[in-house]
Amino acid sequence: MIIVLPNISEKFRRELKRLNALLVINIIVGAIGMGMSISYGILKVLAIKLPITVDSVALLPLVALGVAGFAVSIRWLISTVETFSEVQEINDEYDAAAKGRDGDSTTSLIVKSMSYYRAKLPSIRRMAWVSRIAGICFISLAIYGLAASLLGFGEANLMLAAASFILNLTIGAVALYVPHSFFNLSTSWGFRLKEGAGAEASLKKVLEGQA
Questions:
Q1: Angle 103-150/6-47 helices, nearest 10 degrees?
Q2: DSSP letter assigned to residue 50
């Protein structure tokens, strides 16, 4: 019988929450990117006047840029949603095992997740970078918005400006923190797997089955 230690199980729960948060951030970024691309492309299309002039032709590459941005955003959004669905399945299995206090099932899920992370590592790393970039953008937007309001270039309502600053700063901080905390947890799986008796043998079986 394989026994999973309580502290390992709790760390596994926290890691799943971090991964879910990382995926949600990327879904939000994908949706924002898609919306901005559509708005940008439509504005450029509306700026094209008939009959076609040189200025109108110069707008075509910008329209193409909007279309390309939309294509990349929707592809990223679909890919992230698919990954989110897969992780939700692991979440559901873990909840069922935790409620049943089934140590064997929980350890098997840890092994399954380890194998899943290894297979998805390139995608997860890209999501982490997207999250970090989004965090920097939100924090920059928060600082810019507050500074513009204080200097009289932006929103005159300081209460609204302060609320916007707090919201953007919070989102930015979370977007920077989540990938950092997730990788801090996930990189210690090798040590945690050794703490569960028989987990390494189970991991080899899973990996051999995928080969």
A1: 40
A2: S
Q: How far apart are CA 68 and CA 66, in angstroms?
A: 5
Tens-digit pLDDT profile for residues 141-174: 888 888 877 776 655 567 777 788 888 899 889 9
> CA-CA distance, 3 to 101, in Å (whole number)?
11
Contact 28, 76 (CB under 8 A): no
Closest CA to 110 of 207, 1, 193, 173: 193
Q: How far apart are CA 131 and CA 28, in angstroms?
A: 10
Give the span between the Cα atoms of 82 and 86, in whole angstroms: 6
Cβ atoms < 10 Å from Cβ of 63: 17
Q: Whole-angstrom distance between the N-terminal and C-terminal Cα of the chain?
A: 26
- Side-chain-side CA neighbours of 149 within 13 Å: the count stands at 17
3-state helix, strand, coil in the chain (%, to 5): 85, 0, 15
* pLDDT tens by residue, 78-95: 989 988 888 888 888 877
Give residue for tokens 């679909």.
Answer: 78
Q: 65, 47, 67, 46: which is closest to 55 by C-alpha?
A: 47
